[in-house]
Backbone:
């Protein structure tokens, strides 16, 4: 089997050589029409419920300094910030409500506790990540390094890469690479500069407004209160959402593509997972782990994604990666997936993600 033949086949079915579409039209065609029906009431109730839960945890955190209560309250606060963020994600895609104005308002309110400036996030997420999912050099969320790039890193940077791509580094990666580098330090393009500056000002007003209010009420003690209700929930959110985003597109079977070989089907269908959570999971995570149909069409509201996913999985059983959420899969992915190799074949398909421990043999075989 030549390398060229391998590249035109479906990655997950290399032995059987199943041909896949290159575009999304055949996939869009199998999504039932009512998956696009949106309920304003349901959207508002989901948003209101998350606001109430977050508000109650803030009230709880302000009322206690008992470590036995603080830790569970922080966990709950961080997860509820993630829930609000997922609601904001749906709204920022114009998928939560039919009204664009309501989407814009709810997106901005939902993303305040996660300190995300909506318009900046929309640029990186909607335009770059969704437009170029798993395309080498363009998509930026959990973009693996090539073996050569890794070899050129300093010892400290190598250590950081291992940590961030390891089982507990997802929060550090999200905080540094996604939030800090791609949003806080990002220079707005002229076209969207005004909206981006406005949304950044909103987030700054939220964070500094809370600090001013708490210091005004409690003097220096207000700084500790602010750490409890703004900073700690944000950091736990980063860890939570880092884990969530990692498993959407990173698995030993999923590869990244050079620009000339990338197509929408490879990125959005073969490169995106459907992960079914245990009962109760979607109370907070709002079906974000049923991720593949969201990448096929961003306009499907979260609560309709399971139905769209079932229809797609039935029509494309050989190309869809559908499984329950399992800790062992995540641990296996963090062990295996830290680097990738786009050009060379070491007993697996070119471009497959490789572990750091395998890089020595890669370099030995192709010096
Ligand atoms: Zn999205």
Residues:
């Amino acid at each position: 089997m030549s390398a060229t033949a391998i590249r035109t086949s479906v990655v997950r079915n290399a032995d059987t050589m199943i041909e896949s579409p290159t575009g999304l039209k055949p996939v869009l065609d199998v999504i039932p029409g009512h998956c696009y029906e949106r309920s304003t009431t349901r959207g508002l109730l989901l948003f209101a419920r998350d606001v109430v839960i977050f508000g109650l945890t803030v009230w709880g955190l302000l009322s206690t300094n008992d470590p036995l209560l603080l830790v569970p309250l922080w966990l709950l606060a961080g997860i509820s910030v993630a829930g609000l963020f997922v609601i904001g994600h749906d709204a920022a895609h114009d998928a939560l409500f039919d009204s664009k104005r309501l989407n814009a308002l709810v997106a901005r309110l939902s993303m305040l506790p996660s300190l995300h400036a909506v318009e900046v996030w929309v640029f990186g997420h909607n335009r770059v990540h969704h437009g170029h999912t798993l395309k080498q050099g363009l998509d930026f969320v959990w973009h693996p390094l090539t073996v050569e790039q890794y070899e050129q890193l300093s010892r400290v940077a190598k250590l950081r890469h291992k940590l961030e791509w390891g089982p507990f580094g997802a929060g550090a990666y999200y905080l540094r690479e996604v939030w800090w580098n791609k949003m806080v330090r990002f220079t707005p393009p002229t076209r969207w500069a005004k909206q981006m500056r406005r949304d950044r000002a909103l987030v700054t007003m939220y964070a500094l407004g809370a600090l001013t209010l708490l210091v005004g009420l409690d003097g220096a003690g207000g700084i500790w209160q602010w750490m409890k209700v703004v900073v700690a929930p944000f950091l736990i959110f980063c860890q939570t959402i880092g884990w969530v985003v990692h498993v959407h597109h990173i698995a030993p079977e999923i590869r990244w593509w050079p620009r000339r070989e990338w197509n929408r089907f490879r990125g959005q269908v073969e490169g995106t997972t459907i992960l079914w959570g245990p009962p109760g999971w979607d109370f907070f995570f709002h079906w974000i782990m049923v991720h593949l149909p969201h990448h096929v069409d961003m306009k499907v509201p979260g609560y309709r994604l399971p139905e769209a996913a079932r229809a797609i999985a039935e029509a494309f059983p050989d190309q869809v990666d559908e499984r329950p959420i399992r800790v062992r899969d995540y641990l296996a992915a963090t062990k295996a997936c830290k680097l990738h190799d786009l050009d060379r074949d070491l007993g697996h398909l070119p471009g497959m993600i490789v572990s750091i421990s395998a890089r020595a043999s890669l370099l030995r075989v192709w010096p």
About this structure: The longest strand covers residues 273-276. Confidence is low (pLDDT under 50) at residues 1-16, 345-350, 361-367. The CA atoms of residues 147 and 339 lie 6 Å apart.
